[in-house]
Amino acid sequence: MNSLFGRMFLGAWLTAVIMVLAAVYITQFSEFGNPRHKDRWEGPEMFRELTHNLRMTRRNGSEHFRHWLEDQPPKVQARIFALDSRGRELLGRQISPSMIPLLESINYRNRESRALVDKKPTVAFFVPQRDNDSLRVVFIAGMSKEELLLRFILRNFWPILVLATLASGLACYWLARYLSKPLDNLRTATRRVAAGDLSYRVTPTLGGHSRELGELAGDFDSMTAQLQESTAEQRRLIKDVSHELRSPLARLQVALGIARQKNVQALDPELDKIGKAADYLEDIISDILSLPVSGGDDRPLDDVVEMNSLLIALTDDLKDEAQGKQVHFDLRSDDHELLVATRGSSLTAALENILRNAIKYSPCGGRVAVEIRHRQEQCEIQVTDSGNGVPEAELKAIFRPFYRTDEARSRESGGFGLGLAIAQRTVAQHQGTLEAFNANGAGLSIRLTLPLLDTSF
């Protein structure tokens, strides 16, 4: 049964059958026992005691029965009525009109009779005595249908409730597990796709479920496949265009060099502007070509770098650039040897980009704080500038390619929004994380976390 409706209907139907069978079992076997048993009759011990005293009454007279009845508790007295030969009740009680036909039906020839009195099973006895006197006794031997129903509910309500709860609970648990498991798989898939993994497919995990879920999985995989193809084509297009732009850019730079060699001083300001524009375009093309064509990069991390030494070397290399803005580095380390697996100079380039951004957005006379810490088999590097920070709503967006905040739109200060995107992808290829937040009393902080190399073996 491939339909989700069909499976839900089958589950509900089986639950109903189990509940009905449980109720029938309780009512037929537990409550009433043998079907041939007189279900509505009760009190066999009381009945035996009554008949014993009736035999004693034949020998000892009505006074014996009256004394015995007076000694009984009120609950027993309410079920036994006795009339002497003059029609008086032995305890002086009023006889119900519904008993009169039953009392009139017994005599010397018919000494026992049964009937319903007030819908209750009742037995009447005619007891002759030695002194030609007689006694008519009525015994209410059972309960009415209404009383039996009330007793059944009181005695069996909790067992039926427990069985019904267990049956429906098991069915609902199975149904919830059946429905929630594919939804969990789909939620995992959406999160992975949102994180950039467009190669993830859900058909292998949802294909074996209902037809509806299988169709949903197929549509989801078709969507991610189209997104993956579209994204790959977009990235290839950007790289192809960037490659094509390098040829005219190279010719432009050659022509610019020739023009400068002519030493025409009147054209120097214009040539400088052309040179800056060409350099800016060259930087953009270089960063675009640094972006990976696909989301994943399976090349092995076949090199090792010590992070303290790398940060010291990078801050020394950037010292002249920082002094140009009167910005100084504040480097702090906990003196642990921090070895990280890497590949070529990719990690060096990412850290250099982060440090350059910190210098760029720090004001003249500012400070760039660099902290290196050892955190449970991980290396944590935090770079904090002394600028104005980034609006909270844009802290995640700054890692998107070509994204720049409103404060960084100009070419002089803002770059073109590829540095942090490249750094984040580089860190992700090293199984690390990169996050940004505004530091208290400072500017923007970039925190980079990388797994340390296991040197225990």
From TrEMBL:
Residues that span the membrane, as ranges: 6-26, 157-176
E.C. numbers: 2.7.13.3
Domain of life: Bacteria
PROSITE patterns: HAMP, HIS_KIN
Keywords: ATP-binding, Kinase, Membrane, Nucleotide-binding, Phosphoprotein, Transferase, Transmembrane, Transmembrane helix, Two-component regulatory system
Domain HAMP: 177-232
Places the protein is found: Membrane
Top EC class of this enzyme: transferase
Any one GO molecular-function label of the UniProt entry: ATP binding
Protein name: histidine kinase
Protein's organism: Microbulbifer bruguierae
